[in-house]
Each structure stands twice: as structure tokens, then as C-alpha cells.
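Dear colleague,

As promised, here are the two records you asked about, laid out in our usual form so they can be pasted straight into your sheet.

NAME FIELD: protein one
SEQUENCE, THEN STRUCTURE:
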Amino acid sequence: DFGRSSELAFVVEPSDDIAVQEQPLILYCQVEGIQPITITWRKNGVMIVDSENAFMLANGSLYVSRFQRVRGDGSSDEGEYDCMAQNHYGLVVSRKAKIQAATMSDFHIHPQNAVVEEGGVARFQCQIHGLPEPVILWHKNSMPVNTDNERYTLLPKGVLQITGLRAEDSGIFHCVATNIANVKFSREARLTVSGSHSTVYKDPMILVGPENLTLTVHQTAVLECIATGNPRPIVSWSRLDGRPIGVEGIQVLGTGNLMISDLTVQHSGIYVCAANKPGTRVRRTAQGSLVVQAPAEFVQHPQSISRPVGTTAIFTCVAQGEPPPQITWLRNGQILETSDHIKLKNNNSTLSIYGINQADEAIYQCLAENSAGSTQASARLTVLWADGLPSPPQGVRAETVSATTIQVSWEKPLQNTKEIIGYVLHIRKAADPVEMEYQEAVSKSTFQQLVTDLEPSTSYSFYIKAYTSRGASKASEVTVVSTLGEVPAMPSLFIKVINSTTVQATWEPSIKLGQHEGFKLYYRKVHLSQYTGPVLLASNVTAYNITHLDASVVYEVKLLAYNQHGDGNSTVRFVSLRETVERTVLNPPCDCMKDEQNNKTSTTGIIIGIHIGITCIIFCILFLMFGYRGRLLMCKNVQEQLSTPQIPRSQRSATGLVLNGATRRDRDERDLNGKQLDMNELERLFPASPSQEQQEKGITSAHSLSAPHDETQISTLPLDEFSIVEEQPDPLPKNPHGSSPAALAPDHSPANEG
């Protein structure tokens, strides 16, 4: 381990600067580390030789006596300068310092005359380019503008805003631009304030909105927004992405200009200025983007390390910035070139050096750069080497044994062999990168190793190291040899019968087949010795149809893969077509279209039958319900009749006749008109008998008078059998009151009708 004071590193690096024409310039560089240290300077990558104009001071700084933007020979002192420091352990290079000449151009925007009504807004602008950025001040009537006046706002980019204009604001204005290179005056412009304050309504309007700005962190951004209208609009700011602007470092200049101090990357975004009419939703908007860049800075510096010979050294360098920085690696001040044993990964953030040796001992630098600036960090690699280590093993040879095996042999080192505890064989495919290398350990008494599980037809590289308890020897010479080629493995084969004369042979592609150029397919009748084939098929083919076969015999099908080394083992399958023929005879093919139509017809019939059945069930239930209700009513009427006092037979007969006549007529009408008995007619026929009236209202069945005697027999029948029949009309006795039966009812029909 080394202390920081022993590391060669920069304490002070040169920084970007703006130089004044014909003035001296000093670029600082201070280094620490183990002496002696040599410091040199470069400009644009070219070494600077001490001269009368430019030379190095004792502390390592560069002094330019008279800076000139353009010299007589066409050269310039402008450019990128860096400082290099070197000692016994290596060389480091400082960051690049960009040196520019201070300049100032002419004004390319001058203030313009303006006539504005009282209470309005006036805006003047000057614009000029220069290095460093010129400071612009405003004069009114040849006197500096009073910045204490709240109505006067001076913006950094050369803008003067005057709000709430009054008559005393009239005058002649001009601006003055100043930097270390020069002082310049703009043309004059007259401001005239006319009339009195108008009360006419005016929609809000944004005169000037924010510009797109690109700045660096810690700078100050001013986003301009000036609006007019009557009544005076209210100016507000927001971000287009909806994020809050915040309050820290935020200030409003004048009536609506937004100033953000000490910029950070988080301030980047699109800002929206809105002019709102007070008390309404009427508004006008304008927007501008702010891009904040951040110079590259390191999140993780590379660390100095010490590693034994033959091992791997890894340096990590992580940087951030906006835009994201590019990382470059230097070795002793020179751009590092990658090779088989030097690799860069993770967008150059990781440097790996494999199998290090004495030549790799150096100072490695990580240089991070973006458009906002650059930075560097360095680390030293120390290669550990112990005295008395063995010399490299001798006579390394490799012989091919098979397609997957190589035997490697060697001889012991020539020097310092007593402390050897073993050997390590390093193995790698010749086409693979160094990091894909793997090792096999071998005892100290063994001088050969059989390397197995290799890939056929592949080149491999081998080298040996001898190890002691204090470290490893240097690597032996590298030997490269290739494994033998081999024939492909057996393919998997499947046979499918297509029809009585055709079978299909299919197989699956597999990496287990190895390298193959294609397939060979053979087939024959089993009782014959001669094969048909080979049928040559490409390596990407996985199926083949064998046609015109005899259905009465058994066939043998054989498939093998082949390559430049020969044919592989074959896969054999047997197939018979006889069962297919018999199955075809026993089960002729169906007429699918006809079956489908029959299925459709059958399905339709089933659905119709179900609907008819459900309908019949519903009607039966309704019929039973109404029939049961009718029987209940009839039973009730019979009971009431039985409870009624008996009347003379003559009256019963007359009543029977009349009822029979009325019923016959009503039944005839029902047959003609499809209607039931007229209940009102029955009421008219029996107006004097309440019990009979109640009985007639509930009639649902007929009385059949079929007794052989003079008594009338009553029975309950369904409504369709309703009738009253008199078998033999007996001579009617005289009514006790002297009235005849005919007098009891109108003469509708003969008494014995029916």
C-alpha cells in the first residue's frame, strides 16, 4: 500500500480562462508525489517549448507574457492547454483548460423609438456578443437609469422594461456594454408617453415571452415575460410537466419576469408564462425551455492497486454530468489502446488488464468530458515481482487425441525449480476473448495434462505457469492446436402413415447432432437387400414424404446425418401400410357435409319438439286447474239444493220441463256461438226462489233425470253433458192452487222435447 503523498497527482490543475489582448496570462499547475517530478505543458496536444513569449515558472505554472489572439505568423495563443507530470512510476495529464481571447462585437440589436400611452408598458432592448459576457447598463438623457424605481426593470440580457408609464418617463434612452475587452455605446431611442390612461377594455396580451436558454449549473437564469391589457393582467408561471417551480432561489423581477439563481440540473424543463385577466379565466400563454448542463464529475474514482504477475487488474471509474460524459482512458498520458489482454466494459467505466506483466506497470487515468467541462482521475498499477521465482515452463506441446480431447505436455523451468508447488494450465478457445479463459491445476510432478470436453473442429490456445508460495512464474509460450472433426450424432426419426401408399419421415433439429452438412434418407422392403437412396436433404430440412409404396409389405426407413468427416450412425424405423388399407375398407370415409346437414336437421327437430312438449304441459296444467275448480263449485251447489225444502212433484215436473226447455235452447246457442249458459236467463226463469237463484249462479254441470219412477234422480256431470231428460210425462195432477204447469213458464217448446 502507498500513501497519498507517494502517488503522483495534481493538487492544482489549469482552469478555463478568458485572456485580454496584449496582457499576461498565467496557467497554474501544482503536483505532488515522489520526487523527482518533471512538469511539461501542451497546447492542443503539442509540447510547448520555453520561449520569450511563453515559459514555465519554477512552481510548474505556465506564463504567457503577451497574450495575442492572432500573431504575425498566423498562430494564436487561444486553445486547449494541459499540464503533464512524470516521475519514476509513470506520467499523468491534467484536465484540458480552454483559453479564449476577450472580445466584444458591435451591437446587433439597438433600442427603437416608442410611443406608448400613459399607464402602458415600454420595452427597450440592446444585444451584443462578447467574451466574457458584457454587462449592459441603461442611460436616460445621458444619465444612468435609476434602478431604485420599482417601475424600471433591467434584465441581464440587455432589456429595459418600464411599467405604468407616466409623462416624466419620456426621454432619450441608450445602453452601454462593458467587459474586460472594451466599452461600447448603442444608438439612442426616444420614448414618448402620449395621452391619458385609457379605460377601454383590452384583452390580455403577452408582448414578449421567455426565450430558450442553455446554461450551466450555479449560473442565474432570467425568463422574461411582459404582458399588457386593460385591466392590467396578472402574470403567473408554471412548469409544463406539472412539477412545482419551488421557492428557493426563485425571484420575480418587475411585473412578471422569473429569475432562478444557483441553477441545478433539476431546474431544466419547459416554463409557461400565463397572462390572466383578473377575476376571469381569460388568459394568454407563452413558453420557453431551460436546459441546465453540469460538468463531468466523478462518482467513483479509480484506486491504485498492486497485483502479482499473471493476475488480473481492474480499475473502475464512474462519472456523471449533463449531458452524460464520455470516458477515455490514458496510460502514462497516452490514449490506451485495447488488445487481447486489455478490455474496456460498461461504457468504458471498467478497465480490465488480464495476465499482467512488468510492462503493464504504469499510471492509468480516467478522463471524463462533456460540453460543460472535463475532469480527470488517476491510479497506479504496481506489478509485484519476487526475486527467485521460477522461469517460464519450457517446451509446451499440444497434440490432438480426438474430436473432444487434446493432450498438453511441457518441461520444467530452467531456473528456481526447488520451490515449485504446482503448475496451472491456461485454456481458451482461440476465437474467444481473454476473459473467457479458464485454468486447470496440475501437481508439481506432472508434466502433461489431458484436456477433455472440448468442441470438435475448434482451435484452442494453451500456456503454462509454474507457481511457488511467493508467486507465479511468467507465462510460457502459447501453443495453438485444433481438435479433430467428428461425424454427426444419430438423429431422432419418426414415421407417420399418410395413406395406403405414402408415409412421412420427420426428425428434429438438435445441437446434439453437432456440425453437419445434411441428411441421407434410405428405405427398402424388408425382404429385399437393396435400399432405395440415398435421398440427400439439406441440414435445415426436417421432413420428407416417401410415396408409391406397396401396401402389402413392411418397409424399413433409415436416416443419418453427414458432414465433411463422414456419415454418422443411422436411425432405423419399420412401417407397415396393411392396417391402413384394412381400416379404409372397414370404415369407408364419411360424407361429412351430409352428416353435418343431418345433424343440423336433427337438432332443429329436437328444439321444435321440446317447445311443443312444454306447450302441451302448460295447457294440461291449466285444464286440470280449471276443471278442479269447476268440480268444487258444483259440489257446493248440490249441497245447497239438498238443503232446500221439497216442493210438490207437479212443480218439480214443471220446473224440470221449463229448465229442460231453457237448457236445450241455450245449448243450441252454445253450439252455434261457442258460448256458455246465459246466467241472466236463469235468473229470469227463477225470480222467486232465492235458493234456486243462488244454485243457478253456480251451475257448472247438468242434471240428468233418468229414474224409472216418478222421482227425478240428480247426478253431477261435466258441463259438456249438461241436459235434463224426462222419460215418460205422467199425467199432471191438479195444482192445489188450481194453476196448471203451463202457467209456470212460457211456451218455449213441447214439454217432452229432448
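NAME FIELD: protein two
SEQUENCE, THEN STRUCTURE:
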Amino acid sequence: IAATQPSTNWHLKENAREHHTSKFSSEELIVRRGQSFTITFNGTERPEQNLIFIAETGPKPSKATKTLATFDISSTASKEGWSAVLQSSSSNSVSISISSPHNAVIGRYRLSVQSGSSSPASLGTFVLLFNPWSSGDDVFMPNKAECEEYVLEEFGIIFAGNKNHISSFGWNFGQFQGDVLNICLSIMDRSLYYRQDPVTDVSHRHDPKYLGRVLSAMVNANDDQGVVLGNWSGKYEGGKNPSSWTGSGEILQSWKKSGFKPVKYGQCWVFAAVLTTVLRCLGIPTRTITNFSSAHDADGNLRVDEFYDADGNHLERGADSVWNFHVWNESWFTRNDLGPSYSGWQVLDATPQEQSGGIYQCGPASRHAIKEGEVDLDYDSTFVFAEVNADCMYWNYDAATGKKTLIFSKSTEIGDSISTKAVGRDDRVDVTSDYKYKEGSREERDVFKKARKKLGLEDKFDPTAPKLEEIEQKPDISGKFKVAGSLEVGKDLNLLLVLENLQSDAKTVNVNMTAWSTLYTRRRVNQIWKDSISVTLAPKEEKQFPIKIKYPEYQQQLTTDKTIQVTALCHVEDGIQVLVKRNITLDNPGIDIQVLGEAKVNKEVVVEVAFTNPIDEEVKDCVLQVEGCDLLHGILELRIPPLKASEKSSTKFKLIPSEAGLKHLLVNFSCDKFANIKTFKMVKVIN
């Protein structure tokens, strides 16, 4: 080889088109494994003779760890290892098609070429990713529309609220934007696994099971100075309220810019959304999943205990909890460690809830294993099984005597309306039946018993088996809260407590009622209201008691999660207590987006955002945040003047779309009285 450095043409456009990597905006070649790519280089004499290529990755490349490959020119691409096939050559340049194996380690590679006995000359670097379009890859996804959604789509919808009232908001995953790929590669190189043993860590990066688990640990800041710091206190000084983010890009960029200090703050959907970005970026098909009435079973007995005092206040006792909703991830890959029936969607959870193997990581747990109660299979199946299946026990706790009395238990409370975004549409799809058999069905109870048995919870020394005080008695009355009217921040909250006497003799009932503002995890923050009533119910009589909580009563107390827990503890004379509870999520007022005119590539288009102040006092500190892939760079922030009672504001701004297709614009409006009013609008961009 001549002493000059060869100059390489990486055929960026053509290779990217073939490898589904055109959305990356990079000057570096980005390709997927198990598929050939073409490069042309010059600076070689008699080029096709005795050329040897060297591809290497990681700190100490070696053939033993499959981080180093040397290969010469062959007549056909190899099925097993790396290979090079001559495409064409002229007197001073040569065109080569290079193929990597289906199970190659992913990451940044250095490529060099050697001719005869001279020393190797560098051709440059390229990045190798997982390949869901290739049937030999562990992440192969046969359905092309699903590949488009779960790898290439940069917009997502995350479901929240509670099971009686599901809401949703848009999220900008932005996995192809700016520096995100480089940040994802940095995340892998900052994990505890890499720090302890870089050579072994890099050699495992061919395996989506391994990377999914490592990245579930790295997206939270616990243990390893990972990307996002969790905060469930309701106080977010020194950082951003978790509800205020609208995309992963800002979070990942902040992490890098700060010198890799954890970004403040996240809650479950932030961890799940960032993990979606990272895994989609690396080529592992991934989606977010929302589980309503999600159990956090801290002690692994598949049971969640909740305690209430005599006034009906929910007590913070014990480590178990039930969240209004919890968001985790599913990623698609094979489970050659468990067998073919366990392949497909795997649960990963980056929210730091319980340690696994000594650090805060969770998964991959096979979704099929969860449905079948195979809680002994790797990884963390017991925890995920409990999230969707735990039984609930509700107790009355007397602090003075330390006595606890079972009020009632429920086996159909947990794991409701498990939701994800539809493929190619902005709709909700219910996937509950992929996690469990129908609630209350024989199969569902059989699976639950099987899981308990596998965990050794069925023997006679079982501390969780019903003791005498746990045997449930039949209540004399039943009760429920009904919502009367709208559930909107700024309006009074109108409820009905409905009590029914189930017996054929009259009953006197003393009812203690409370309402607390909570976080979405149902953690109590402020008491809003309390009241008590005494009622007599004639035989079989049903009575309704209206409850009104006025806006000024709850306005100061409400958290940005906009959630309120209402409880009524009913003490029946000469009978057992009945607990009536309801978790309520209030909606923000609406906000309206209009695109004025046609959206065309590289042409200005005006967007108008309108908001009407629904309350009879002024709102101030109004800020509008806008983001959207291929519609604008970064985040646009606009300050809006204060709005008097019932006043309407209209804000206009300009976009210059950079790419044709269906794009999503995300808008987040906040002021002193309303936090994070979010909406999104699909924008059709034409050439």
C-alpha cells in the first residue's frame, strides 16, 4: 500500500437507504448487522491483490471476544463471520461490499486495510446497530409496519391518569436527532458493567437481553450516575418537574452537557420514554406500556397491604404500594436462554423500584412467562408478575394498640387496562390479555396459585396465609363514590357517596370521609377536606349523599399530578367496617393548535395556539413550549402575557419543516394556576 492514507467513500446515502438508517443525521456510516454495505477507497496499487480488512471495537479487541475480525476478499458473503466481496476496481480505487455476522457486537468500529506485508492503513470508523429487518438477528421483527413504529418512529403516546379515566400525552423520542446516537454509545461505556470489566462488557453487546438489562440500570441515576434522577416527593426544587418534559432529546443532551451528571427529575414515564429512545436508536424494537393500578410488591409475597386509620386516612405503613399507573417498556427479541415460546415481547423497567442483582435494574422478563405464572424465570419475573397480578389487602390500623383488622381483600384490583400506542395510528391498544388471563377466570386463579407455589408461599408456615383475624366477614352494606359532573382543574368537584343496605334489617352507619391530594403513586401530600355523617339505612335501602369540594378548597393543595384520593370509612353499628375509596384524576383545561396553511418542506408555515382562561381570576407566568422532530430544531419557548378571567390568548409562531411525511407537533402550556397542559397535533408535510 502506498504510504498515503487511503481516502474512503462510505456511500452514506445509498448504504443508509439499504440499512434503514437514513433518519440519522451523521457524517459517519451507520449500518445494521447481518447485512452488506459498500465502500470505495483509493490509495492502493493492484488493489484487489492480498487485501486484508480489520474491523475492531472496544478497548482491547480480540478474536476470542468477537471484538476483532480480520477477513480477506472472498467470492461470496459469509453466513458466519465478517466478509468482503470485490464489487469493482480500477487502477487506483477499489469498491468492496462488506458483511457482518447476524450476531456481531454492536457499537463503533474502526476499519482498516492491509496489503501484503505493509502495516494496516485506517479507512475510518462506522457504527454497527441491531437489525430487526434481518431474519437471522435476535431482534428480527417479521412485520414491517411494526419495525417502522417500534424502531423508526420518533413520536409516541404515553397513557396516564387512572383506570376509570385514562388520559394520554405525546412524547418526542427523537432517537435520530443530533448527537443522540453518540450519547447512547456513551451510556453503554459508563455502565457499572463496563467500568468493572470493559472487555467482557463489550463482548456481550451482541445480545439484546444483556444490553436491555444494562440500559435499564443506566437510564436511572441510582448506583451508576445514570441519566435521570427519580423524585416522587412532590417537591422538585433544583430541577424540572417530571411532568414538564415533552421529549427525551433535552434530557439526553443535558446529561451529556453537564459532564454526565444525572438530570433532575424523572418519574416512571420519563425513565420508560428515555429507555425507548436509547433502545430504538440502537435498533431494538421497543415501546412504552402503561399498567393501571400497578402494584409495587416490596416483599415478594404477591400481596399488597394498604392501611387506613379510623378516620379513613390512608396511612404510609409498609413498603408495598399501588400506583394509579406505572409505565415500563417492552422490547422485542428472542430468549435463547429460556426457549422459543418465551421469545417476543420482553418487559424492561428503568424506574428504580427494587434492586435486582444488587442494583436498580429490571428485566428482561418474558411477557409470556408473566402470563403463565413462570415467576422463576430470568429476569425479575416475580416483581413484574406482582405489578399486574398481586392481591390487595385493606387493613384498619389502630396506632394506639398496634392492632390491625382486615377490612376486605380484592384479587381483581391490580393490573387494569394495560395500554400502548397502536402501530401507525395515534390510538390506544389494550394488551391486558397478553399479560394475564381474564380476571376472575379459572385460568387466572390457577396461574396465580402456580406462581405462589413456585415462590414457596403455599406451605403451612406461610406468613401470608390468612390468620384468624384475616378471615373476611360479609359486610352489611356496600358503598361507592360516583362522579357527578366534570373532573376539571378550575371547577368544583362534585361526587356522590352511594350507600346500600344489603340486609333486611335497618342499619346505622357512621361515616368518616377524607379527601387528600396525592401523587400518581397515591402518596398523600395535602389534606383537602374531611367530614363525617351518621346515617340510618332502612332494610335494602340505597341512599346518595352529595359531596362538593370547591375549587378554592383544593386549588392550593393540588399536586401537578392533579390526583385526589377520596375515602369513606363506614363504621356499621354491630357490624364490620366498610371502606369506600376512589382515586380521581382531574383534567387540565384544553388548548387548541391550528396550522394556518399548508406545511411544505423548507417553507415557513404559521401555527396558532389558543388557550382560554377558564377560572374567574387572572393567570400569570404563562409559558408555551413547542417541540417536534423534523418540524423545528430543539425546543421553542414563548412567554405569554397574563390572562384575565375568561380571557382567550392566541399565540402565533413559525415552523420550517425539514422533511416530508406525517409529523407531530408537541405543545406544553404552563402558568401559575395550571401546570403542563399538553397536547399534540399531527402535521402533514408535503414536498
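A couple of things worth noting about protein two: The radius of gyration is 29 Å. Confidence is low (pLDDT under 50) at residues 459-463.

Best,
R.
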